[in-house]
Design a protein that fits this description.
There is one protein chain. By secondary structure, the chain is an alpha/beta fold. It folds into two domains: 64 residues, Urease, subunit C, domain 1, CATH 2.30.40; 262 residues, Alpha-Beta Barrel (TIM Barrel), CATH 3.20.20.140. Helix content is 23%, strand content 25%. The protein is built from ten helices and 24 strands. Strands 8, 11, 12, 13, 14, 15, 16, 17 and 18 form a nine-stranded parallel sheet that branches. Strands 3-2-7-22-23-24 form a six-stranded mixed sheet. It has a four-stranded mixed sheet with strand order 5-4-1-6, with no helix packed on it. Strand 16, helix 6 and strand 17 form a beta-alpha-beta unit. The two termini are 17 Å apart.
Length: 378
């Protein structure tokens, strides 16, 4: 049991408001938000110095950073990513796989399972996001086409405990049957992505249980006034949608439009970060393909965007600067919304009593001052 601690002198971010002159009490879990510490002895004080006190950030779509990737053979790559991410306010994440052969994909899932069992020394590994290989080759993005296959239960049956999210192209033969068959594993969510589905195909998939869209606008059938495509179906439904708010993958004008159409309670900011994040520009790899990172953009030789070098704190800053979202609304896109999508909102995502003491303290410019995970300052 950790010693009881209290954050004082902070602006505490709740779902719909920011409160001041309160005390956030916690050990390994949030205990209470109260007026003062009267009659309480032996409580360690953490002075927020008038900064914001937020639930910890969750990134449900990140391939890597700090020179490491979720597909690396060495499980310690996940440790490096984890320790690095917490510097930027991330308290939990889903290491995200790329399309690969069976051996390498299952090794990655084995590593993610191991990392999820570790005592956190950085951002917690919540499980895996399988971005490939159940996608459409026509919208492969940076995925190697030779590894793309139709959905196959045998490939994942031994990893149902660790997979939290699967990106899928529902229009591929057999993939809708797979989605329907997976209803019995309700803890796994599906996201439409790397898809060339028509509006009708996408809407049918959404009605059959698709809960989100993978990096909306990118690697999917776009919206045309005569063929609304995947984008049209996502905008015309209430599912969640990931957004890479680096101002490269999506024009910032679209941030504001997306908020008007979907509402902030259905947007999840992600990074889609690759191993070059927080590294020097140069040549790296993603999914076995060479990627050149230059001027904040990661691209294959043919110019295709290959993930990003975005950090989640930067994404928050970009969304605030380019929309009219309040700070609580913006923070919900990296806390409440991702936690709800992957079915963990009873454990993380807000500062409610009983939830994990995952806390991020930052200033008015979203510069991270302190990251606390399971009650421990990192």
């Amino acid at each position: 049991m950790l010693n009881m601690k209290a954050i004082v002198n902070g602006k505490i971010i709740l779902k719909d408001e920011i409160i001041e002159n309160k005390v956030l009490l916690y050990d390994s879990k949030i205990i209470a938000i109260q007026d003062d510490l009267e009659h309480m002895q032996g409580v360690e004080l953490i002075d927020a110095d008038s900064c914001y006190v937020s639930p910890g950030f969750t990134d449900i779509h990140t391939h890597g950073a700090f020179g490491c990737d979720a597909m690396d053979e060495d499980v310690n790559a996940l440790s490096t990513i984890s320790k690095g991410l917490c510097q930027y306010g991330v308290t939990s994440f889903l290491p995200t796989t790329m399309s690969a052969d069976k051996k390498n994909l299952q090794r990655a899932l084995d590593n993610i399972r191991k990392a999820a069992s570790w005592e956190p020394k950085g951002a917690k590994v919540l499980g895996a996001h399988m971005e490939g290989p159940f996608i459409n080759p026509l919208r492969k993005g940076a995925h190697a086409e030779k590894f793309i296959i139709k959905a196959e239960y045998e490939l994942i049956k031994d990893y149902l405990d660790i997979i939290k999210l699967i990106t899928i192209a529902p229009e591929i033969e057999g993939n809708m049957d797979f989605i329907n068959d997976m209803h019995r594993h309700s803890h796994i969510s599906f996201s439409i992505g790397h898809s060339n589905a028509t509006y009708e195909e996408a809407l049918t998939a959404i009605e059959s249980g698709i809960k989100s869209a993978t990096h909306l606008f990118n690697a999917m059938a776009g919206m045309n006034h005569r063929e609304p495509g995947v984008v049209g179906a996502v905008l015309n439904s209430d599912i969640y949608c990931e957004l890479i708010a680096d101002k490269i993958h999506v024009h910032p004008v679209m941030f504001k439009l997306l908020m008007k159409v979907k509402g902030s309670d259905r947007i999840i900011l992600i990074t889609d970060a690759m191993r070059a994040t927080c590294m020097k520009q140069g040549v790296y790899d993603l999914g076995g393909q060479q990627v050149t990172v230059k001027q904040g953009s990661a691209r294959l030789a043919d110019g295709t965007l290959a993930g990003s070098v975005l950090r989640l704190d930067e994404a928050i800053r970009n969304i605030i600067e380019n929309t009219e979202l309040s700070l609580p609304e913006a923070i919900a896109t990296v806390t409440i919304n991702p936690a709800k999508l992957i079915g963990l909102y009873d454990e993380i995502g807000s500062l409610e009593a009983g939830k994990s003491a995952d806390i991020t303290i930052f200033d008015e410019k979203i510069n991270i001052k302190t990251t606390i995970i399971n009650g421990k300052q990192m």
